[in-house]
Specification:
It comes from Scophthalmus maximus. This is Putative secernin-3 isoform 3. GO terms for molecular function: cysteine-type exopeptidase activity; dipeptidase activity. Belongs to the peptidase C69 family. Secernin subfamily. The chain is α+β, with helices and mostly antiparallel strands. The protein has a single domain, classed as Penicillin V Acylase, Chain A (4-Layer Sandwich), CATH 3.60.60. 29% of the residues lie in helices and 23% in strands. It has an eight-stranded antiparallel beta sheet with strand order 3-8-9-10-11-12-13-15, covered by helices on one side. Strands 14-1-2-16-17-18 form a six-stranded antiparallel beta sheet. Helix 8 crosses helix 9. The longest helix is centred in the last third of the chain and has 28 residues. The radius of gyration is 20 Å and the shape is globular.
Length: 418
Amino acid sequence: MQPSSCDTFVALPPSTEGQRIVFGKNSDRPCEEVQEVVYFPSKYHGAEEKVECTYMEIDQVAHTNAVVLSRPAWLWGAEMGANEHQVCIGNEAVWGRESANGDEALLGMDLVRLGLERADTAEKAVGVITELLEKYGQGGSCMEDQCDFTYHNSFLISDRKEAWLLETSGKYWAAERVEGGYRNISNQYGITTKIDKEHPEMREYARSKGWWDGKSQFNFATVYSFMTTARIEASGSRYCEGKKLLEKSNGHITAETMMDILRDRDSGINMEGTFMSTGSMVSVIPTNPALPGVHYFTATPDPERSVFKPFVFVDYCIQLKETTSPSYGPSDPVKKKPRFQSKPDRKHELFVKHEVVAAIIDTHKDRGKKITDSMRQLEKEKMTQMEKILSSGIEQPDYLANLFSSSVQEEMAVYSKR
């Protein structure tokens, strides 16, 4: 499996409009993989309780936050998501000098979910993830397959006031605070000499391996990467193209801007082929804590042919059944050893209907355009509705409890008119 990854973006004032933080990610995964969007309410847990992650069981905490997640349907963690405190996290695969071929441990995707469940700020999420990394390690196949596709992880984490970039290599890590402007990450290390937090032994470990002389200015990306930062900036990389697209709208970045970036094919950000963009997320978080955040998810492949549908945290949110995949419990081939001996059908209701429509868009130009236009119209209507609550707050929380699911039903109604 050739190294492939995702693209994650965050924009903060003064790069955005309206004193908002805009977060976005395309999850690029094997093209046949199903990505579901699921909601878990906040919960209190017993003192001795454990939580079963993808490959291992770990200690549970006393309280977990409500979370909405976009995740490959076969695993416990998430590619991206948000919590009730408006913390957003997305992760990226990174490969460097340190081998990623370790034993099964926590996946980077497990760490995304654990960070969201356990932290109420971006900075606290950095602490949660790095403490878990130190205690349990990271490792295991990141695909529902026996091919041992493994990697280390970088994370982009945001809240109402700032963002953090966290990059890891085994148990070692560095983190950089982003307090304004914009930032994007792809599948390379990006932290250079501005390091705001780090593993206490990270530099000494690099020195002991001969990667750093212990005297020159320490540059995390240069020391821990296969590549120099000059190569990371090379023309044609998705990282560089993403940076250009953010720069193009600097000062005026909105949710629509972020959706357009995620849909961009020429840059490679909207990925096609054996690895493709199987799910997409855009979040809009006002810096004013009195206002709600809005989190848009596709729950379907290819954002160009998908509808970004809104989710808002309110009391009594309902379960998102139309985008939840079938559960196979203890009999799931992922849970049995040896793992991945078979692949069950993980398609959720929206995925099945979207698959049919995507084929029509591919093969019938006129019909396809009408469907796509109707999908865009629905998305625009939803965004107009959300603009009111982003600006003025929530007047009828009960209406929003079913917001995402009702939007999915409207999307499927558009499909049925094809």
